[in-house]
User: Fold these one by one.
Assistant:
Number 1:
Amino acid sequence: MNSAATGRVAAIIPAAGSGIRLGADIPKAFIELAGISLLTRSALAMSVVADVIVVAAPTNELKQASDLLADVDAEVHVVAGGEQRQDSIANALKVLPEDVSIVLVHDAARPLIPVEVSQRVVSQLRAGAQAVIPVLEIADTIKKVDSANKVISTVDRNELRRVQTPQGFTRAAIDQAYANPEIVATDDAGLMEVLGIEVVTVIGDERAMKITTAHDLQIATALIGVTND
Ligand code: C5P
């Protein structure tokens, strides 16, 4: 395997989730934002930094996913997703070419990721980090509540960060994390924490927002309008 200083970069795009929370009856990644699907937008953004792109698509929609990736300038693979996001990523890891030394994992649901964020992640990995995540500070005051929604305490927001994607890992680190299917976490950096691998942060970007609800889709549409001005 090549070292992270020199090997090829791959981006895994988990895109096998449903569109239920968006009120859509098609997979979320196939929903269009100003006429271009979330999947196409995310893959085009990743292709600026990645040589290889592996998309985990809904099992019955592999052809449609491939069609949406026709104009992406990278070595593109489409695999079937799994029950959970982590299963989808595990399936994608299985087809990575041998010479890939850096693996980015980027949610299809974050289509407006600016290239600078991906570049910040890759450059930290090239410089020797094993795991890198883009993060943002928190503007709101955060309260901890009990099961009856009564306030227990105020959490120090200076110690908290919102985490975005692409999260980046050396091939060795992500292979190690996924070699052990019993380890479960809500994001890939969480797997690294369980393994005791140091996770470095870089500055994210509000445009890398995750589209979960119809309201998010409206905000993203407005952001495109601003960007095009
Ligand atoms: O559902 P959520 O927005 O948290 O999903 C984050 C990303 O993971 C989305 O891009 C979604 O398509 C993907 N996903 C997946 N396989 C699943 C569930 C979610 O690839 N089983």
Number 2:
Amino acid sequence: MAVMADYCPGLDIHVVDVSQHRIDAWNNIDSASLPIYEPGLQEVLNRVRGRNLHFPTDVSGAIQRADMVFLSVNTPTKRNGHGAGAAADLTFIEKAARQVAEVARGSTIVVERSTLPVRTADVLRKILGQGSGHHFEILSNPEFMAEGTAIEDLQNPDRVLVGGFCSQAVAELTAIYANWVDPSRIITTGLWSAELAKLTANAFLAQRISSINSIAALCEATGADVDEVRRAVGSDRRIGCEFLRPGPGFGGSCFRKDVHNLIYLAEHYSLDQVAAYWRSVIDLNSWSQHRISQMIVKNLFGTLRDKRLAVLGFAFKADTNDTRESPAIAICRDLLHDGATLSIHDPRVSFDDIQRLLVTEAEGRPTSGCFERVDGVVSACEGADAVLILTDWAQYRDLDWATIAARMRRPGWVFDTRRCTNLSDAAAQGLETWQIGLGELA
Ligand code: UGA
């Protein structure tokens, strides 16, 4: 909405939330207290906040005055009951829709922005149809931005997708995007295609990562180098080089949830083979995470008891403080179970977050091991038997291995699960090195 307000000074945008605390945070001009960290967001906010982007507290009033309402609520995976662990929990979208039905006036265009299961618009139609005498049109306008590059993705999108069955409503939303997006990049479709396209895009991206991670393991076993394979394979235009970097498995709030959603949908329509195909993408991702911890234990002589590991990076990827589904969670839990002492460094993730994920929400508290959060990379490596890189933060690219190696216990290891650091410098300091997807057979 901030980016939209930036490009469309003629629009008056009001962002509302049921959480007063959240709205207060968005109104706070102190950038450190914004609810999310996103590069470039502060600059855009500085231009539009109070001009044509507002964070009011009156939810009903804002809906009442709006010509267009964007529903951007959370759709987590259901935890209990029918479809638990796979289906999307539509509680929030339903609540929001009920409130719109109750208070909207005249003719309102309701836009789905959240990632939703196919045919959610049907649910919205039924709820909105309950309002008396108002006219609603429903559009699906899923977003394709990724965290860490959200502002850039919105300012210069590969495409904008607008799905709907009412051409007038589609034209109105398309006209807004046309303020900054080339018309050739604005795709219009029916409602169901737009809803399914979003899930499919994420499922294909997740599948690419599971595919390259499976090949990375094969490279390690055969003496091949996954970077070389990636370059050779990715230069085929039909495949492409992007989104083929191996890693400790994909994380984030979207991929696992959306692939599960697709599995649930396939099962709902009795397409069991389709469900099994997509389930394997998730299974391979869990395997990718656990194999990292197993490989570490193996290299550290079969036990982590009384061993200290520096863990560099806890966020699910660089340039975000988001830890949802981060591969670091499963990997650190495994290491703790094996008795390790972890010194965790991440430039943006708080101790409270780490504590919550490794202790409070851990399925079964770690039976042994302990952890701390450390501010500097070098202090995290103090007395360490191994350094484990889990997130590709820019500051890990060029580490001072001479200083780090001098503080480590020997034989010291560096495990680079992102292929993002200057590993040859570490080797030159006498450290043992392992990187994902690099085989050692000549
Ligand atoms: C993802 C999609 O990329 C967005 O297009 C989509 O809009 C968004 O979900 C959403 O549904 O809201 P996001 O989850 O923010 O975006 O992050 P990604 O950049 O897709 O990264 C996901 C995971 O894959 C990360 O853990 C990342 O480290 C990993 N990854 C990514 C790799 O391991 N290798 C790669 O080559 C790329």
